[in-house]
Write a structure and sequence with these properties.
Elements lengths: L1 E4 L5 H8 L4 E4 L6 H8 L4 H16 L16 E2 L1 E4 L5 H15 L5 E4 L6 H5 L9 H14 L4 E3 L30
Parallel strand pairs: 1-2, 2-3, 4-5, 5-6
Helix pairs in contact: 1-3, 4-6
């Protein structure tokens, strides 16, 4: 069982989840309280997410086995995901420094570049563009500088086939198709 969440979980609930969960895939979105407040409505997100992450790691450890080839399927543990946001590289750098300080270079990470602006972003005057190669490179440079040992790095692309398109409710994620020509 995999628990895929925002990182915004109550620490005291993690033990209950852990009874049924083998792998935790929490996001760690924000290190900046003000950004968390603007995006999630709660400036407490960094502290809440950090306490929850500590408990997840205490309960399950780091993701194992670690195999970037995909040949050996992970059985248990924690892998932290972080989505780099356009114009907010400082937030990402601070997230990486915080995670390194708290858990060390062995913490498994997934650094994601897949942000794609949606109409709601324009309405709120936030994140109105995609991530630039320079922004993503700055984040990946710090990943290497800090010596993180277990990192999945998402390729930066201009388009994403994994952004849901709910115009077709029977097939909202075209990126999940094995062969797009097979309809």
């Amino acid at each position: 069982m995999i628990f895929n969440g925002s990182g915004y979980q109550k620490q005291e609930m993690i033990a209950e989840y852990a009874e049924f969960v083998d792998i935790f895939l929490p996001d760690f979105k924000f290190s900046e309280a003000e950004l968390a407040k603007r995006c999630m409505g709660d400036e407490r997100y960094p502290g809440i997410a950090l306490r929850a992450l500590h408990e997840m790691v205490r309960m399950k450890g780091f993701l194992e086995p670690w195999d970037q080839t995909g040949e050996n399927i992970a059985r248990r543990g924690v892998l932290v995901r972080h989505l780099v946001l356009p114009g907010k590289v400082g937030n990402s750098l601070d997230v990486l420094r915080l995670l390194h300080r708290e858990f060390g270079p062995g913490l498994p990470l997934s650094v994601m570049s897949q942000f794609c602006p949606v109409p709601e972003c324009s309405e709120q005057k936030m994140f109105q563009r995609g991530l630039t190669p320079d922004e993503y490179a700055r984040v990946l440079e710090l990943v290497a500088e800090l010596g993180f040992e277990k990192v999945y790095i998402q390729e930066l692309r201009e388009e994403t086939s994994f952004l849901p398109d709910f115009k077709d409710p029977l097939d909202p994620f075209p990126g999940n198709r094995q062969n797009p020509s097979m309809d």
